[in-house]
Amino acid sequence: MKRVIRLLTSLTFAIQLLYASVGFSQPAILIAPEIERVPDDRPLITTPPIPRPPGLGRIPIPKPVPDLSRIRRPPFGLPSNDGIKFGCPFYCDQNYCVLCTKAFKQLEAGWCWNAVSQIILDYHDIKVTQCEIANRVYPQQSPCCLKDGRPYAQDTNDPNARPDCGLSAGGFPQYVFDKYAFDYSPQSTPNGQLQLQLLFWSAAVEQIKKDRPYIVWLHSLIGNPSHTLVVHGFSDLMGGARELKVIDPQTNPPDDWFQPWDGTLRSVGSAQVPVGLGDMNNQHTGDISDIQP
Q: Is 219 left (phi over 0), alpha (psi -120 to 50) or beta?
């Protein structure tokens, strides 16, 4: 009888071990979607694209998010003015350099331009929230957030709804740097048109060595909204494989990683520029560099 009990005990313990190991391999369950499903009969908010210099087509602008009144956050989002530091302690040499940079999650869809600007401002000791940035960029629509820190969302079915301060149509980091009197390159034209540039590898490395994290613009090739990331480091260590360290404010929590750099040249109008951080799903459209107060 004791032998049977001992055998059953061993079998139970083995089953518990097996169950524990299987548990760690189960797929994660999404607790709450960031954006609920939108009924088909609700209209979209549309904004025409902003023109760019002749010969280069038109600057893509983030596509509108359907029915922003129904946006809700994941339950474990970061507080609005907290962040995560990456690249600390700071280390830099000729082949590797990562700047100690605090990352912030964008509060809502459509505010990547706001979040990457907040990351850059914070790096230069300007401590502001995304709501404060939106209020300054859109003073005629202020306040842009509720008292609890959530951005207002515009309901297209409510004629009395508050403006959304760039949530639906998106925006540009240049708007923020203009309001905070930051220098950046390339500067906007006198008539307000945004200009584009694409850095070669040596120029990208020089930005980091000059203690200037900068912004890259990615245009989706598969129909997603355009997106902006912050570059705060580079690596040229792995047998000539070049990579840039990027921060993505869209992930929750914000994440950073080394993205491979492609120096192959491609044609944009009459210019030959590198593929850069482009891949099968995104095209590296431009860079905002030399950002400083």
A: beta
Beta bridge partners of 35: 71
To the question of pTM greater than 0.90 for the whole model, the response is no
Residues 6+ apart with CB under 8 A from 66: 35, 38, 42, 44
Predicted pLDDT of residue 280: 87
Pairing mode of beta strands 91-92, 96-98: antiparallel
- Between the alpha carbon of residue 115 and those of residues 61, 65, 98, 225, 227, the distances in Å are 16, 17, 20, 15, 11
Query: Averaged in consecutive runs of 10 residues, what is the pLDDT profile of the chain (293 residues)?
Result: 48 38 26 31 39 46 42 39 70 88 88 95 94 91 80 63 76 92 86 83 94 93 87 85 92 87 88 89 92 94
Instruction: Report how far residue 232's alpha carbon sits from residue 243's, in angstroms, rounded to the nearest whole number.
Output: 11
Q: Return the number of other C-beta atoms located less than 10 Å from residue 198's C-beta.
A: 20
Per-residue model confidence (pLDDT) at position 154: 60
What is the C-alpha R_g of the chain?
23
pLDDT of residue 232: 95
- Cβ-in-10-Å burial (0-12, 13-18, 19+) of 289 comes to buried
Long-range contacts made by residues 262-271, C-beta under 8 angstroms, separation at least 24?
A: 263/200, 263/201, 268/56, 268/198, 269/55, 269/56, 269/57, 270/55
Quick one: 167 exposed, middle or buried, by C-beta within 10 A (0-12, 13-18, 19+)?
buried
Residue 167's pLDDT is what? 82
Contact 205, 267 (CB under 8 A): no
Between the CA of residue 251 and those of 39, 132, 257, what are the distances in Å? 26, 21, 12
